[in-house]
Amino acid sequence: MQPRPNQRLSSQAMAFVLAGGRGSRLKELTDKRAKPAVPFGGKARIIDFALSNALNSGIRKMAIATQYKAHSLIRHMQRGWGFFRAERNEYLDILPASQRVEESKWYLGTADAVTQNIDIVDSYNVKYVIILAGDHIYKMDYEIMLRQHVDTGADVTIGCLTVPRQEASAFGVMDVDATGRITAFLEKPKDPPAMPGDPNHSLASMGIYVFDWAFLRGLLLSDAEDANSSHDFGNDLIPQIVRDGKAMAHRFSESCVRASTEEEPYWRDVGTIDAFWQANIDLTDFVPKLDIYDNSWPIWTYAEIVPPAKFIHDEDGRRGSAVSSLISGACIVSGSEVKNSLLFTGVRAHSFSSVEFSVILPYVTINRRAELRNCVIDRGVVIPEGLVIGADPEEDAKWFRRTDAGIVLITQEMLDRRAAKLG
């Protein structure tokens, strides 16, 4: 397929989103849902950021590979992303691991998830494929990365973060020459290589890869025949291209979408309880590092039809109020005090309760005189009357999951066990 003059490359590309992982570091938050389906930012799910980046970049063909406990993720896709129209040459396919190759064969790795769906990608008739992780928070224009890929004639272009060198050991790190060509790919090295001209920083992989589909297709078929391969992009395909082909680094700072208030490129892996809590609480800052109010680059999601938030009671000690907080639709703050917190849809906070520095997922009920500080409360939890969290670390750890940083995760199962134990 030959491009027309001045045609955006994104119109010839598809986004293949890898959304099959559990995200076990989020502990009980992913007991019932995959990490990409975890709610974020008051209304969205984590996967909405990658999909919104693709849509805002002009990509109208997408596929989402799912595997682990995918029901809530699939339901979210159906409700929030069902506006693609085939008659406009737009497609969004959900590709669960479904034993398409062998009855005993699920997705064996990130590359295998694409390999098992080669026929579906072929049907899109695209020239480029962007491989995306479905579990990071960021805003990025993929068209800019596509343009670099074409201009440099790369076999693969890899999205890279600039990170302090002393922190780079937690990532896959790129060693690059002065032209941006990747000369080595090192997985979590003890001594990360520095960027050219910058001894204090390294380039870390974002897990974003741009390929020509014809090239990737051949590579996948060859990898599928290799019994020694783990069929993974980071472990197998990327190192092979670095060794035998042309791999180029694309710096996130060059394509990061920033509003006027955003001072530096924002990317977060919210894969731990602490990181998830912090990224949500960051949104309550006076000038947040991530601007989700930027209408020029909206975060698309399922727009649940609910009434506005409501604040009731206005007397000393019983005043419905929220300060430095995000309060979503259908919340009722009834004589409760909310500070530096994020309440998702449908939360009910009853009289004389208080919420500080907490992330409250949808449809949680906080009963009277409960006090919550430094918490993440899972969806649908009913907080008992008078429960105090965040004041006594030993008591918190006895019943709930408390991180080393002091963030407390609460699920209904934990509360039920506590109630059964206390009688």
UniProtKB/TrEMBL annotation:
<dbReference type="InterPro" id="IPR005835">
    <property type="entry name" value="NTP_transferase_dom"/>
</dbReference>
<dbReference type="Pfam" id="PF00483">
    <property type="entry name" value="NTP_transferase"/>
</dbReference>
<keyword id="KW-0320">Glycogen biosynthesis</keyword>
<keyword id="KW-0548">Nucleotidyltransferase</keyword>
<feature type="site" description="Could play a key role in the communication between the regulatory and the substrate sites">
    <location>
        <position position="67"/>
    </location>
</feature>
<feature type="binding site">
    <location>
        <begin position="187"/>
        <end position="188"/>
    </location>
    <ligand>
        <name>alpha-D-glucose 1-phosphate</name>
    </ligand>
</feature>
<keyword id="KW-0808">Transferase</keyword>
<dbReference type="InterPro" id="IPR023049">
    <property type="entry name" value="GlgC_bac"/>
</dbReference>
<feature type="binding site">
    <location>
        <position position="172"/>
    </location>
    <ligand>
        <name>alpha-D-glucose 1-phosphate</name>
    </ligand>
</feature>
<dbReference type="InterPro" id="IPR029044">
    <property type="entry name" value="Nucleotide-diphossugar_trans"/>
</dbReference>
<dbReference type="InterPro" id="IPR056818">
    <property type="entry name" value="GlmU/GlgC-like_hexapep"/>
</dbReference>
<protein>
    <recommendedName>
        <fullName>Glucose-1-phosphate adenylyltransferase</fullName>
        <ecNumber>2.7.7.27</ecNumber>
    </recommendedName>
</protein>
<dbReference type="InterPro" id="IPR011831">
    <property type="entry name" value="ADP-Glc_PPase"/>
</dbReference>
<comment type="similarity">
    <text>Belongs to the bacterial/plant glucose-1-phosphate adenylyltransferase family.</text>
</comment>
<feature type="binding site">
    <location>
        <position position="107"/>
    </location>
    <ligand>
        <name>alpha-D-glucose 1-phosphate</name>
    </ligand>
</feature>
<comment type="function">
    <text>Involved in the biosynthesis of ADP-glucose, a building block required for the elongation reactions to produce glycogen. Catalyzes the reaction between ATP and alpha-D-glucose 1-phosphate (G1P) to produce pyrophosphate and ADP-Glc.</text>
</comment>
<keyword id="KW-0119">Carbohydrate metabolism</keyword>
<dbReference type="GO" id="GO:0008878">
    <property type="term" value="F:glucose-1-phosphate adenylyltransferase activity"/>
</dbReference>
<keyword id="KW-0547">Nucleotide-binding</keyword>
<feature type="site" description="Could play a key role in the communication between the regulatory and the substrate sites">
    <location>
        <position position="106"/>
    </location>
</feature>
<comment type="subunit">
    <text>Homotetramer.</text>
</comment>
<dbReference type="InterPro" id="IPR011004">
    <property type="entry name" value="Trimer_LpxA-like_sf"/>
</dbReference>
<comment type="pathway">
    <text>Glycan biosynthesis; glycogen biosynthesis.</text>
</comment>
<feature type="binding site">
    <location>
        <position position="205"/>
    </location>
    <ligand>
        <name>alpha-D-glucose 1-phosphate</name>
    </ligand>
</feature>
<feature type="domain" description="Glucose-1-phosphate adenylyltransferase/Bifunctional protein GlmU-like C-terminal hexapeptide">
    <location>
        <begin position="307"/>
        <end position="410"/>
    </location>
</feature>
<dbReference type="Pfam" id="PF24894">
    <property type="entry name" value="Hexapep_GlmU"/>
</dbReference>
<keyword id="KW-0067">ATP-binding</keyword>
<keyword id="KW-0321">Glycogen metabolism</keyword>
<dbReference type="InterPro" id="IPR005836">
    <property type="entry name" value="ADP_Glu_pyroP_CS"/>
</dbReference>
<feature type="domain" description="Nucleotidyl transferase">
    <location>
        <begin position="15"/>
        <end position="284"/>
    </location>
</feature>
